[in-house]
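Late entry, glyceraldehyde-3-phosphate complex.
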Amino acid sequence: MATVKQLVFPPLQGLAPAITLDGPVEQREYLIDGEIRRWSGPVADVLSPISQETPDGPRQVRIGSYPMFGEAEAIAAVDAAATAYDSGRGEWPTLAVIERIAHMEGFVHRMVARRAEVVKLIMWEIAKARPDAEREFDRTVEYIRDTLDALKELDRSSSRFTIEHGIIGQIRRGPLGVVLCAGPYNYPLNETYTTLIPALVMGNTVVFKTPRVGVLLHRPLLEAFRDAFPRGVVNTVYGSGRATMTPLMASGRIDVLAFIGTSTAADALKKAHPRPHRLRSVLGLEAKNPAIVLPDADLELAVRESVLGALSFNGQRCTALKILFVHASIISEFLERLSAAVTSLDIGMPWQDGVAITPLPEPGKPAYLTELVDDAVRLGGRVVNPGGGEVHGTLFRPAVVYPTSPESRLYREEQFGPVVPVVAFDDIEEPIRYVIESNYGQQLAIFGSDPETIAHLVDPMVNQVCRLNINSQCQRGPDTFPFTGRKDSAEGTLSVSDALRVFTIRTLVAAKSTDLNRAILTDIVRERRSSFLSTDFIL
Ligand code: G3H
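Prediction complete; structure with ligand written out below:
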């Protein structure tokens, strides 16, 4: 039987400067109405999941604190955003596209300069492995650049008049108003910015609420927001969702809710809005993406992708593989290989070379995962890999659980952590029924080699999920691909180009083609009197 290394937090002395925090980050600054103001109200401590060994067991390192806003401060943020939008008359929503692009380029330039600080804080706040933290930052920068290219393309296709049935029209996409952006802790930069950036560049103004975990890493970019955009275009809010987001929604002044989190929270927020028909929502919610491993699958590949899919960033991805259905004829060999692969994963700190499993940032997470595993074991399952499910402070050794009873919580609940439930099936109807009966409908992975069998699964299953992956783990990228889900998994579609659409509405100026109207339109365009009525072509 394979031996497993002891779970232990290494000493924190002597770390390289690129990793060491210079001291706790006591954030008191927040951005409202173009000013970085200083907070003097209550604060919350930030405890890193990275811990120090003490005689009483591991103790999480305190790395700083952040403001706990109440209703008044949240409302001040929406006031500033609404004033900057000024019912669509503000400087930002009326600016020509080319000028908004220039502001955004200024932002990226300032953002890139703060890469090292942000990456370091991602490691300390959410324990993301250093290469993944760097990738998250770089992917976000690339996303912004791709967004600007997509916007140029969109603008080019709108920079002309159309004449239909004697009516001249110019059709563009216009902003919607004030957007409340709230991202998750697991991709704090990427998932937040994939809504915030398109919302902004399309002319909306933004109230940006950081999640409860993953706050300080946004601090280095406050000045960039202040300096790159007109006042009030970006405003930040910190603290509990209940104390800040609920009153924001209840104010009725949020036009778009861009939220990545649970469907329960999203439903509560939407219900708090007094005029729900005025509210647009762009939501990324829960998922329980299954993998189906067919009898003729290449097992080495299926195991490799399953480990990546289920355990990258400790399984804390909405796209993670969260349950594996494996054909009964290959279950023993699959489990043996999976257990060996999971056992070989390095457990350690984010800066250690080759680390795969790191401490968990959510308060109470190891205890929650333990409950799920215990429940599955009580219902006939066992932990297959040596030491699986062992807890040491915020460290949780990944657990492969088999068999996973349909009665267990693990069978349906989104674990969002390093627990891999496995189910054996004889009849393909079993996993198909699972997908159909699931509350979620984000993605699915199929492992096999017979084109006929795969094709028979593809056609019905693409009407249950929004992405079907063949011999590949589930994932969001590349970011030019549409990212969405059915049922309780999402509302709206995000991708570089789709995001420009979800934060806007098609708007047009039309006129009967009379001599007078043609003369008016010609004059407006020739004399460049309008940003909207314009045939300027961005090169
Ligand atoms: O948590 C959900 C992320 O958007 C997943 O992104 O599949 O590229 O890791 P990823």
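Residues 193 and 396 are 29 Å apart (CA to CA). Will revisit in the morning.
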